[in-house]
Amino acid sequence: MLHTLVVYVEDKPGVLNRVASLFRRRAFNIDSLTVGHTETPGVSRMTIVCDADPAAARRVEANIYKLVDVLRVDDITDQPAVERELAMIKVAASHETRGQIIQLADVFRARTVDVSNDSLIVEITGSGDKIERLLDVLKPFGVLEMVRTGRVAMARGPRPASKLEDRFAGEDAHEEPGVSYSV
Amino acid sequence: MKRTGAQIIWESLLRQGVSTVFGYPGGAILPAYDAMTQYPMRHILVRHEQGATHMADGFARATGQVGVAIATSGPGATNMVTGIATAMLDSSPIVCITGQVGSKLIGSDAFQETDITGVTLPITKHNYLVTRADDVAPTIREAFHVAASGRPGPVLIDITKDAQQSSAEFDWDAAEPKLRGYRPDRRPAPVDYQKAIALIKNARRPVILAGRGIIQSEAGQQVVAFAERTQTPIAMTLLGLGGVAASHELNLGMMGMHGEAWVNTAIQEADLLLAFGMRFDDRVTGNLKTYAPHAKKIHIDIDPAEINKNVPVDVALVGDLREVLVELLPHVPVAEHVEWLARINELKGDSAVRDIQNLPDNGHLYAAHVINDIWRETDGNAIVVTDVGQHQMWEAQYYKHNTPRSLITSGGLGTMGFALPAAIGAKIAKPDAEVWVVVGDGGFQMTMCELATVMQENIDINVAIINNGFLGMVRQWQEFFYEKRYAATPLVNPNFTKLAEAFGLTGITVTKRGEVVPAVRAARNHKGGVVIDFQVEQEDSVYPMVPAGADLHAMIRRPSPIVETAADA
User: Fold this and answer.
1) Which ipTM did the prediction report?
2) pTM of the model as a whole
3) What stretch of H or E contains B328?
């Protein structure tokens, strides 16, 4: 099944490479990986979607956390979360079809962000499923080009308690009770 | 105070307690070497950078302290790769410092430029590229902390030439590590202790599996206390040997591919496995589908990524083994397990008994005899450093290690060429210890250039070459699994005795059983390096053997009466 991991890392050169390299090295499958700045200077946040059974996902999590530059790992797969992906789709559009395409895009709450004589660009934000469904209806018009960001995710409500120790959030980590790795 | 980056390297190493480094100079590390002359640092000049890493590794394994290797950029750095991977697989704390081309030249394919942090990314615990003199001290301090803490491992620091040449304020106190995410100090959850205690209470046929973790966390005493309190027999991994005295009555000996039959059978019949600082390597489990089918499993390890990696376990206690056992011990019930121990004795009874000393001399020289004689002559008190292959397994079977860190061997990576340089490192770490290298004729030739280091540094070690004229373990596999097609395994060897003499060392050739003990005694009495060429039976095999991927209890047993006898004392 697909697991969504939120990974906080030091904003340093090479950290993305270390994380990506780990997946290759341990033969874990990455479905998507996004990275960007956070509310805290010096800390970057990755959303990693990987295909793994629950035991393997636990090992992915433990292995990522072993990287010295990783601050915190949360597996938010089973938590209520907002998950979004952005896609831009360039569709062939003549004078006859343009209106039709824009109407379809509207149904999906997608926006038309560029128009030329024989094509237009539709921008959509949403779940991967929603993007796939829009793509299906646009395909008959001719999809010329597509780019997707990969998934970003955020758990709903207050920040989730990490299954792994959380030094990033507090100084009192040593006082925490031990951590269970038994399944 | 202002110092150059090069000076800061040595200032920092001295403050980390380093007194010896193993290295080889070159262009990009030259500023560091030039500055070294101002500091009280012993530098061992190796003959190949791989040797420097194995020496640092041997130093670390003999002491538990961080070993340091140093090399130049490009080929100097890439030559370290095998040694770094060796240290990684066996969780050995070493710090490797490499020179790098000037920071302005990085990425330009400059002379002797290699992206060594990229190359070593998957085989280091962590690595660093340092491009400013200001970062040298904090990086070295952090590197030592990372290398030695938690599950130890190799750390590489690549320092550009301009970072060595430029100056910075040297402030050791300010260089204290500030790692926000790195948490080596793990403790298990109370609920897992409760689960573990319940499993231990209910066990009728428990077995402890003791790995390198018992040596790393210095938990031998606690493991023995646990075993005695609960009357639980202990099976050892190769890298655990010495962690519990071989002479202890509950110590069954080595498990796995070349473990004794009773050890593997006990594991297969067990109803509880207590994995103490080991990682269920394929060489100790055999076929995972049929591994210990009746057993519940408790896994104690410092590395959470090892939990459920190869073998799913019922309870995991992630933390320092010694601390966990100290916590656990008062809560585990005293037990007897009379029937279970009797069962194991019964298993032992039908297996080879390993006192081979009094066997009649049939004119053949067997490796087992050589190693057994070295064990007897040294009273089991030497540090033995082995290479990889048949001799390594015979050593594990016939040299009985009673103290931690007395066996140094490349287990996980299985690096041929490890023994000689690692022994040099061990001897430098423990100058008063008697150090023996037990090495095959193949592996010896991979790093025999380090005999020059033995000569130059006047290292007092004894090298026992178990010379069978073959790459013996590969030959054995060819015999068992490839119908004796000996593809590329016969060796035509140089005259090792003359070779030793060419390096200014003493060489002895042994071809008969009766010559073994006199040769061992001569080597022990000689100050300085000795190489003994033991020309042993060519097509002898290591028994018992669990073929790769086979069930752990499906062993090929000893067919030969020469090393099998019931005449134990």
Assistant:
1) 0.89
2) 0.94
3) helix B321-328
